[in-house]
Structure formats: C-alpha cells, structure tokens
Amino acid sequence: MDGGAGARTQDVAAHWWRRRRRIERSSRRKSRLVFGAGLAVLLAVVFAGSLNKAALDRLTFLVFDAYQRIEPRVQAGAPIVVVDIDEASIAALGQWPWPRSVLARMVDRMAEAGAATIAFDIVFPEADRTSLGAMARDLQASGARVELPPGGLADNDTILAEAFERAGNVTAGIAVSNETTARLAAPRSGLSFAGADPRAFLPPFTGGIQNIPRLQEAARGAGFFTFPPSRDGVVRVIPTIQAAQGQIFPSLALEALRVAQGAGSLVVRSTGASGELDAGRPGVTAVRTGDLEVPTGPEGEFWVYFSGLPQMRTISASALLSEETGAEEALGATLGGHIVLVGTSAVGLRDLVATPIAAAMPGVRVHAEIVDQIVGQTFLQRPDWAPGAETLAALTFGVLFLLLQRRRGALVSSVALVSLLVLAAAVSWFAFARYRLLLDPILPSLAILAAFGATMPILLLLTDREKAFVRSAFARYLAPSLVERLAENPAALRLGGETREITVLFSDIRSFTTLSETLDPDALTLLLNGFLTPMTDILLRHEATIDKYIGDAIMAFWNAPLDISDHRRKACLAALAMQEGLAALNRETGSSLSIGIGLHAGPACVGNLGSSQRFSYSAIGDGVNLASRTEGLTKFYGVPIAVTQSVRDGAQGLAFVEIDRVRVVGRREPVVLHALLGDAAFARRASFGKLAEGHGAMLDAYRAGSVEAASALLLALQRHAPDALAKLYGLYAARLAALVTDPPPPDWDGVFEAREK
C-alpha cells in the first residue's frame, strides 16, 4: 500500500473533526439558551401565579368542582326534611307571599309532627299587609265604615309569632350585608371563644336584614342564609360565622343544629388557643355547636362537600295543610325528630344557586347539604401550607422538565411533559380522594406548560438547524442511517479517545504500483476515483465508518462512533458486496482490477488522533494492525477475503473455510485465518458443504503430520476447487511435497511463520 492520497485524506479527516467540535459547541450553546429561556419563563409564571393567585382561581375551582362530581360526598343520613314552597304549593295556596296566618298553621303542623327544629330560609322584614286588622285600618283611613269585633282582629304577624313561641324551636333567617346599615338585633345564640377574639379575623359587615321584632324575639334561634358572592357565581365556600356591627352571627345551618341539640352557645376556636399552632397567619380554626365541630379557614369559612342528598325527603308546603285522613300520621312519620328546613324552589321566587354538582339548586338544599356534612363530619380542607407546596411543586416540576429537555431532547421532553402533567393531576386527585385535601394542580401544570411552550419552538428550531448541519457535515463519511442517528442525537459522538470493540476492514488493489507506472496522472486519478466511489457507496450502505483512503487502499470500521448491532456480520457482507461491485465495475470498464480484503474484530482506541496542527477521527491499536496484516496475507494465500477467528465467530451462517494458522509479524500467538467465500445462501449449498467437510479433513490430516492422507484429500479438493482457493491449495500441495523429503519434527504444530508484513 502507498500513501499517495494520505495528505488530502488527513485534511478531510481534520475538517470532519473540526465540524464535530463545532457541533458540540453548538449543542452546548443551544442547551444553555433553551434552559435559560425556559427557566426565565418558569420563574415569571410561578412568581405571577403566587402573587396573583386569584387569577388562577377560576381554573382551580373548575378542577375542584370536577373532583366533587367524580367522587361526591356520601350522604351522612342526617335527619333532614325540606319543606318546599314549590310551584305546586303556589298553585294550591296562591301567589307568594302568603298570609302569615297560613305560615303559622304550617309551623303548628310541623311542631305537632315532632320536628326537632324548624329553620326558615326566608326573612320577614316587613309587617304582613294581608292581616285583616291592617286591611280594616286602611279602609277606615280611606273613609270606609268598618265595624270591628270588640277585641279587634288578630294580626297575622302576631299569629305567626305565637306559633313560633308554641313550637319553641324555630330558627329565623336573617341576612348580613354591606348594602345597608340597618340595625341588627342581638344574636339568639351565646358565644364563647378560645384564643384570639374572632372579630379580629372576620370581614366586618355594616348591617343586615332581619325579621320584624315580634317574630325575631319569638324565634329560638337566628342564622344568616346568604351565600357570599364568588367570581363565577358558584357556591363552594360558606362562612360558618359572620361579624356585623360588632356582633357575631352563625349561619342558618349551624344555628339550626344548635337549636336541634338544645345547645346554648357557639364556641369559636382561634389561633393562640390551647393546642392551636400560630403559624404566622392568625385566624379562626374551628367552630363548635353542641357536640359538632366544624374545622374552618382563618375567616371562619369551610368548603361545602356536596353529596346531592339522594335520600333526603322533600315535601311540598301545601302538604302540611292537607286535611286528608291520615295526613297527620304521615307528617309525624316524616318530620318527627328531623331538622326541617323551609325554603323555596319555585322559579319565580329566584332562590336558585349554582353549585359544583348542579347548575341550579334551591338555596334551601345547600343549607341541607351543610347540615348533613356537619353531622357526618366529612370536610374538605385547603391547608394553609397548600400555596407554598404548590409553588414549590411548580418550581420543582418545571426545573425537572427543563433538565430532562436539556439532556434528552424534544421527544423525551414531550413524554416528560405529559408525565409531569399526569403526576401533578394524580397527586392532586390522590390528596382529594384519600385525605380530602384540596391541592391545586393548576400552578404546577401551567409552569410546566409555560416552560414547554417557551422552549420547544426554540429547541425545535435549533435542533432542525443542528440536524441539517450534522447531515451536511457527516454525509460523506458515515452511512446515511448513521448520519440520521447522529442527527437525532449529536451527543452520541464523543470527543476524545475511547476503547471500543470494532470490526476493521482493509482493502487494497492488487499490483496497483505496477499499474500506476503505466498510466499518466489524469488516467490514474480517473481510475482511482472510479474505483473508490462505488466501494465507498457499498461500505456506507453497510453502515461502515470510512476512516481513510491510503492511495488505492481503504480503511473502514464498524461500531464507532455509534453502536452498530451485529457489526462483524455487516462487515463480512460489505466485503462480499465490494467483490461483487468490483466485478461489475470491471465488466463496465473492461478493466481487470482485483482487491484483497482483510477483516479483524477486537478492541481498539478510537477518537481524536493526530497532532494539534492536524488530527482525524480514527482507530489505532493491535486489532487495527492485525486487520492490516490479514489483508496483506490475502496476497500470499491468493484469497479475495480473509478474516480472523473473532470475525468468523461473530458472523455465523456465512460460507467460511479455514485458511491457516499464522504467526504474523509482531505477535507471538498464532492467528487463525478464514477465507470468506459467500453469504448465507452460498453456505447452504450442498457443494459448499461437501467442500467444507473435505477441507477440514485435509487440514486435520496436515496438522497431524499425515502427509499421505492429507495429500489424497487435497488432490480430491483440487479437482473441484473454486478459483478463490486455487492458490491456497497450491501452497498446501507444495508444503506436503516438502514434508515428504523433510518430515515435520515431533513438536510440529502446523503454524505458518509470516516473515513479512
């Protein structure tokens, strides 16, 4: 082999390596740019979301609403009955408002039926204009002559107040509001508190609307029935207590439970009380009524966990006044010992609210849900550490996503995006389903999506540019399939040296020096390029890495810089294809070129080799030298393709016959060489099987020193020997003839000593 093209190929290799370094520098810059952009957007989203959490509440509430629809609360079975002023009642008793004498009869019927408490989700702030006494006075004021009985006419408000007093367990409804400064009467329930005064934590209201004094005084309890407004109008969070004009009022549901239990006062526990931790934000922690306690937020609020109350009884208000036989017994069975909530569902009365489980629910049913939830002691909690945990999760998930994206690229990033979103949702759902904790997955999810949205366009743009550059940089030196693999993962191309198991190929044109002496430079160049181009194409198709062209010789290897599966077999098939390609080239050009190919597989050092002025990506080591020696021995044995035992062992099924055991220059241990004659189809031919069997028997006899037997077997082989083995068998014939006159010594092992490289 000569080195006519060595300088040029070294320049090409150096250029190849410089491009590799440029790609790695570009990859690092790309990684830093994408990570920095993603981190900036991540911090901006988390910071904005933490400062302005209300902006995310809409999405958060939708998630929590969905949880309630997926897994509603199991109804506790609290003894509740709703007396509904429905459309049927309006049709039967006339338009609302009804005379309070009618309501008094209803109260009497409920009390007689044994109701534990009667709570009105209604307020009576004005006197009843339908009272006969009031109507008579109006007529008299108009000049009409009206004669009244000696005792006068009973007032409807008085009739209803007397009914309240007879029942002794009525809870009146009130409303607290900032839209009025009207004076509110003192709460009917007592109040005690442990810890700080709750009035310091509750939003103050300026006034409210209550029942006329006669009714307010006759009621055993009074509780507010108003629901605080929300941005989307959905009832989710309800206060248990509210502060107005320096006084604390309980909710209607809480007051109804107090009256039903016969309790005298409410107990409010705040931070600073015994057993309560003051973690920085003071506030209410729980409200107790009788034997029932409600854990609350700092302003005394709690989340309503809806069940839908599928088993709760609802009766029409008109049924209370039924005179049918057995009506009283039926009412006793329905209302006895129950908390009776009186409210409206008639559309015209507009006491309908939106809840997480229904677009329109009568307000009285919401109060029933609250009573049932408190009795069942099943509560949703939004712990005070939740915002901090959600912010930390957003930062952790976002940074984890960016790190995965930085190291693994777009595909893994997309998988990581979906995985982290699923993880955020799963943790949130698990906290709700298992512990009834409300942890928001929105901020972590938005952080991940923001990082993805900010970085993915940049990553894809830079990755596409990088892939295009990789393809242009390596298309001449690597197989197309390897170029695509490298374009997908440029990091797989390591800088520096590394030891890898590779298969090395050397090929050389026979008698090229003699041939070059007969051709002028232009013809020689044309001939060389015409040979190297198709050979290179064949090697690239078989996933080889072209190391260098050394004049007429080619050095290539497999399994570096990228992993190549089954690289020994692919190298053998490439060598066979080169011989076939050369035959086709000879037929086309009328030339008679022939090549020898040597293959060896083993560890070698591959990487940046050379000097600081010039370097190339190449392979060195004993294995590379042995491949070169193997190619040189093809001339001596006359075989087109010779491979070492390591290649033979890794390319099972192809047509091999053993050539010899050779002790090459520079190695003490003999090398077993094999001739590669054909592919798997060739190996399955019966003629090859017969040849391989006879060939092996001949070698065994030769190495055993059985000259006559070996000669007979060799003679039989030579009659049908393929051209590729003709010279080999001639060598063995000469060796056997020499052994006749000069028998082998007793320690003879049949190993051939190669004297030349």
Briefly summarize what is shown.
The protein is α/β, with parallel strands linked by helices and 757 residues long.
What structural class do the secondary elements suggest?
Answer: alpha/beta
Gap from first CA to last CA:
11 Å
Assign a percent range to the helix content.
40-55%
For the largest beta-sheet, the strand count, sense and barrel status come to: 9 strands, mixed
Contiguous runs where pLDDT drops below 50 for at least 5 residues:
1-16
Report strand %.
Answer: 15-25%
Rg over alpha carbons? 48 Å
Number of strands: 27
Shape: rod-shaped
Our count of helices gives 22
Overall average pLDDT = 86
Keywords for this entry:
757 residues, seven-stranded mixed β-sheet, 22 helices
In words, what does this structure look like?
By secondary structure, the chain is α/β, with parallel strands linked by helices. Among the domains are: 12-68 and 384-473, no CATH class; 74-98 and 114-125 and 168-318 and 331-376, no CATH class; 680-757, no CATH class. Helices cover 47% and strands 20% of the residues. It contains 22 helices and 27 strands. Strands 19, 20, 21, 22, 23, 24, 25, 26 and 27 form a nine-stranded mixed β-sheet that branches.
How are the elements arranged and paired?
Layout: H1 6-51, H2 54-70, E1 80-85, H3 87-93, H4 100-112, E2 117-120, H5 132-141, H6 156-167, E3 170-177, E4 190-194, E5 204-205, E6 207-209, H7 213-218, E7 221-224, E8 237-239, E9 241-244, E10 247-250, H8 252-261, E11 265-270, E12 284-289, E13 292-295, E14 301-303, E15 313-316, H9 327-335, E16 339-344, E17 352-355, E18 358-362, H10 363-376, H11 386-435, H12 442-474, H13 480-488, E19 498-509, H14 512-516, H15 521-541, E20 545-550, E21 553-558, H16 567-589, E22 595-610, E23 615-620, H17 622-637, E24 641-644, H18 645-649, E25 655-663, E26 671-678, H19 680-683, H20 686-703, H21 707-719, H22 726-741, E27 752-753
Helix pairs in contact: 1-11, 1-12, 4-6, 8-10, 11-12, 12-13, 15-16, 20-21, 21-22
